[in-house]
Amino acid sequence: MIELLTPAEMGRADALAIAGGVPGIDLMRRAGLAVADACSRMAGHSGQVLVLAGPGNNGGDGFVAAKVLRQRGYRVEVLLLGDPGRLSGDAALAFSEMQAARLTAGILSQDTLDRVPGQASVVIDALFGAGLSRPIEGVAGEAIDRVNGSGVPVLAVDLPSGVNGASGEAMGPAIRASRTVTFFRLKPGHLLLPGRQLAGRVEIADIGIPASALDEVHGSEAGKTWRNDPALWGPAFRPPCLDGHKYARGHAVVVSGPALSTGAARLAAGAALRAGAGLVTVATPPSAALVNASHLTAVMVRSFRGSGGLAEMLADRRLNAIALGPGAGVGDETRALALTCLAGERAVLLDADAITSFTAEVEALAGALSRRTGARAADVVLTPHDGEFARLFGESAVGASRLARARAGAQASGAVVVLKGADTVVAAPDGRAAVNDNAPAWLATAGSGDVLSGIVTGLLAQGLDGFDAACAGVWLHGRAGALAGPALTAEDLEPALRQALAEFFSRAG
Ligand SMILES: NC(=O)C1=CN([C@@H]2O[C@H](COP(=O)(O)OP(=O)(O)OC[C@H]3O[C@@H](n4cnc5c(N)ncnc54)[C@H](OP(=O)(O)O)[C@@H]3O)[C@@H](O)[C@H]2O)[C@@H](O)CC1
Ligand SMILES: Nc1ncnc2c1ncn2[C@@H]1O[C@H](COP(=O)(O)OP(=O)(O)O)[C@@H](O)[C@H]1O
Ligand SMILES: [K+]
């Protein structure tokens, strides 16, 4: 269940299920039952539950849950935002079923605000879900603030009210839930920040929408969004063959910066080797050759002079993946090196200074990409953090959600874009995208991005395409971070990668 559906796509899946013969009220009853079950687990055998219900179907799920909880013996209070007479469709039906179970609703207003959260031991947030269309204001916003300030555990229905399901952004005040029950599939907003934090622990309930609805909603691969998970890229990443030799696993190159900034390239090179590249060479300017050579063992060192020298080195076609950027220095020289890397037929990863060296000149980069030929023409990966992204693609892209920005960047450049952060997004030029959620905050440490560059380059060397290598690299980097644990430094990631890979291969069989 790694597919992510936007609220609009989820609406289409709902509609397809209904057209296929599942009545909408049945979907709502199952949704509400799943919410009631989750609430029972939170509240224990007894307790008081406050249901805040909105004017749409999210509120409808809340009415079903309220009725079920009442029947289970909980003390339940329902506060409805708006006029019950304006409820329609399935929500109106669920409301009358709740009333038939002798549970009435109060109206959420200034007069009833002091009952929020009142004596409740759990609040069910059924104000707004997929239908949130604008920032929350007025009494609903005040109720949200009161709930958030109370410390009472909150169970959100579908999404924490106020969170945009497509982008994860908070539109005005937003519920801070301890748990969220959503239906059928996650939405991007459950994984993107701040939505991920506001949703708490998320549970996906099966409400009877057939999996076939997914194919109809998405049609082709392009434009799909996934949670970044081994199920997405695992099939493309095989362990070495029994009769394989090191050249079958590729030869990665990492370009080093000058004598005083070589550590980044070595971190990347070590990670590339650990990620499984058969051979790794640090290509170093002569001034830094000695410092690199004195620190490297399994990784080889070769010296080059300028972009002409790098081009000569790269005439060896066995060098099938190259990374440039970590510690490279910003300017014309790095830019020329990047164009040299891109001129060949190998896979290329550009990070850090290589990206910044194209500040506001994404056209120059896109032009170089469009001139690439050969089987690996599409295997170019850019790994900017937010700052580098803004430098390359311009401030105009800054307002959009991270998912939209990564997609726009991939489309503008023609490369796979890894927009790094706590909620890293990987996007391909054809619109495919994956959102990562396994990275611990401990990864926010100097050099951690260099290790990521190395992992991805090592995977590119083994023949994974740009999107798979980027997704797999980001996931393995996150997993290595979790295994290295608190107080990790970038140096700890390479050894931790060993266990991350061991776990992955043992699960992949
Ligand atoms: N479809 C199905 O079969 C199933 C759907 N399910 C459930 O339905 C939910 C989606 O339902 P939904 O589409 O009715 O949207 P919902 O989130 O209730 O909000 C819409 C209402 O809120 C209003 N409104 C919006 N923003 C507002 C604001 N800022 N401030 C004030 N008002 C605002 C908006 O009014 P309008 O924008 O039209 O003015 C409209 O009245 C989904 O999350 C899931 O829980 C499940 O039961 C499974 C089956
Ligand atoms: N709060 C966070 N939680 C999880 N991962 C993070 C967080 N902040 C940063 N990261 C990850 O750490 C890495 C930092 O990379 P980068 O910004 O290039 O740093 P550096 O240049 O120091 O290596 C990226 O992979 C990013 O996704
Ligand atoms: K909600």
TrEMBL record:
Catalytic reaction(s) noted: (6S)-NADPHX + ADP = AMP + phosphate + NADPH + H(+); (6R)-NADHX = (6S)-NADHX; (6S)-NADHX + ADP = AMP + phosphate + NADH + H(+); (6R)-NADPHX = (6S)-NADPHX
Keyword Isomerase: yes
Binding site for K(+): 58, 125, 161
Note describing how the cofactor binds: Binds 1 potassium ion per subunit.
Family annotation (InterPro entries): Carbohydrate_kinase_pred_CS, CARKD, Nnr, Ribokinase-like, YjeF_N_dom, YjeF_N_dom_sf
Cofactor(s) recorded in Swiss-Prot or TrEMBL: Mg(2+); K(+)
Binding sites annotated in the UniProt record for (6S)-NADPHX: 57-61, 129-135, 158, 264, 327, 385, 450
Domain of life of the native organism: Bacteria
Similarity annotation: Belongs to the NnrD/CARKD family. In the N-terminal section; belongs to the NnrE/AIBP family.
Name the record gives this protein: Bifunctional NAD(P)H-hydrate repair enzyme
Protein's organism: Stappia indica
Upper classification of the organism: Bacteria, Pseudomonadati, Pseudomonadota, Alphaproteobacteria, Hyphomicrobiales
Gene it is expressed from: nnrE
